[in-house]
């Protein structure tokens, strides 16, 4: 075991929210529409340049995950209602998204879901997926 946090629970927590509880106690709610727009697969991001192929306006506000399945011990593969099935969201990438202020997830929430956990600040650290750990074939 690498010691990196892994999801211990994933569930719908609202009409557009997907909640992931992690082994280290962190809990994140992801906006599913923004999560779909954040896909880093070769259909959504150019593998050579890293340029975004998928324009956010191409993803409807009504898109939802149909199925979510774990891939090994490192990622989730999501089948979306818009027919997109090739995206893999690594656990590392999901944690990165959770730390970016304007990404699919806001700050970590307390166990009771009441808001940010003590000591957690919105906008702390994080960034894009870079060239590895994102589920694409870089």
Describe the structure.
The protein is an alpha+beta fold. It has a domain at 7-99: NE0471 N-terminal domain-like. The chain is 11% helix and 24% strand. It has helices spanning 32-37, 91-99; strands spanning 7-12, 17-22, 27-31, 65-71, 75-80, 88-90. It has a 3-stranded antiparallel β-sheet with strand order 1-2-3. A 3-stranded antiparallel β-sheet has the order 4-5-6. Strand 1 and strand 2 form a beta hairpin. The longest helix has 9 residues, at 91-99. The two termini are 24 Å apart.
Biggest sheet strand order reads 1-2-3
For this structure, what is the CATH class of the domain at 7-99?
A: Alpha Beta
For the record, give the distance between the C-alpha atoms at the N and C termini, rounded to a whole number.
Answer: 24 Å
Give the CATH topology of the domain at 7-99: NE0471 N-terminal domain-like
Beta percentage is 15-25%
Number of strands: 6
Counting helices, strands and paired strands, the structural category is alpha+beta
Largest sheet: 3 strands, antiparallel
CA-atom Rg in angstroms: 14 Å
Q: Please bin the fraction of helical residues.
A: 10-25%
Give the CA-based shape. Answer: globular
What letter string, H or E per element, gives the SSE order?
Answer: EEEHEEEH
Q: What ranges have pLDDT less than 50 throughout 5 or more consecutive residues?
A: 106-138
The number of distinct helices, counting runs of at least 4 residues, comes to: 2
CATH architecture of the domain at 7-99: 2-Layer Sandwich
What is the average of the pLDDT values?
79
